[in-house]
Amino acid sequence: MLDNSIYSEFADVSVQDVPALISRMRKAEPHQRINYFEIAKDVGVDAIPLLAELVHDSDWEIRHHAVHAIGQLLEEHRAPPDALIPFTADTHDSVRHLSSLYLARLNSSVSIAVPILLGDLRECRNSKDNSDYDEECTRIEIVFALGHVAPAMKEVIEEVTKSLDDPSLNVRLAAAESLSKFGQSAVDSTPHLRSLLRADYDDPPELTDDASRKAWTWKVYQLKSAAVEALFKIGKECHDDVLADILRDQNALCFAHHRALSILSTLPYSDQTRQVISVFAAESKDHVALELSRSALLRDSW
Q: What Gene3D superfamilies does the record point to (predicted)?
């Protein structure tokens, strides 16, 4: 959280204030450093060259903060990402990793960023503890970033496809969404995507209440919906019956219904699915779902 006392000291910050911000940041306690970077970001793209000079700082955490600030500015303003490239050669793996993530998401310097990310993904995948939360988040962010690489390299498609078998449903979801962006070039992934639709997703034994079971089911429906969307975008396969089954589940969270209807509005479907949508709309009291149902019913049937 931003420290208001620090922020008030640098009200109406300009690029001329950035050197003073950096000087104060170096003297601050580690937990306060983020405040100064947040203020520097208010300057906009003009702060990037000054932040990029921190590539030579002796403290890897400062370099890590600098990459994060630069990356966010680049994503917001779509500025040239040259300032990130030197950080990919950093001596600390966290700095190399973060700079590569931003470059991949910006689809820039992928010849540098992609090998780093693929190496990190394989290392996480070979970890002895696949349930480690931090490593799960790392796998998700890598697969998500790789989905922005275009045109997608064969090695990227293969590694993202392998992530469809990840122990984490969240990683599998990120993989399906990334493959969807690759389009026809990801045709070899279609058998793996179909397997997501056929798989059994039994409730984990630790789920002991209705709320946690509904959350789990929502996660499963997210994954299936993403697989349906990917299969259509990659090879024009239409698995509308999977989405119809989600609509039939009256106990599903509204988000699952919304997602299913949103995808149905983008693809053709059978008369049976049209009937399911019509019945759902007639029984639903969810205004968002009703609007999405109308949009889906405007699509031509098979």
A: Leucine-rich Repeat Variant
Give the up-direction half-sphere exposure of residue 102: CA atoms within 13 A in the CB hemisphere.
29
Q: How open is the CA angle 147-223-155, to the nearest 5 degrees?
A: 30
How far apart are alpha carbons 209 and 216 in whole angstroms?
A: 11
Nearest to 160 by CA among 106, 121, 129: 121
Q: Which residues, listed in sequence order, are joined to residue 301 by a DSSP beta bridge?
A: 269
pLDDT at position 179: 98
Task: Provide mean pLDDT across the span 234-254.
Answer: 96
Integer Cα distance of 202 and 204 in angstroms: 6
The tokens for 246 are: 């989600």
pLDDT in tens, 152-190: 999 999 999 999 999 999 999 999 999 999 999 999 999
Provide the whole-model pTM: 0.91
CB 110 within 8 A of CB 103: yes
Q: Is the dihedral of CA 66, 70, 71, 72 positive or negative?
A: positive
Residue 78 phi/psi, 5-degree rounding, is: 55, 40
> Above 50 in pLDDT, residue 278?
yes
- Mean per-residue pLDDT of the chain: 93
Q: How far apart are CA 103 and CA 81, in angstroms?
A: 7
What are the residues whose beta carbons fall under 8 Å from the beta carbon of 299, sequence distance 6 or more? 264, 265, 266, 267, 268, 269
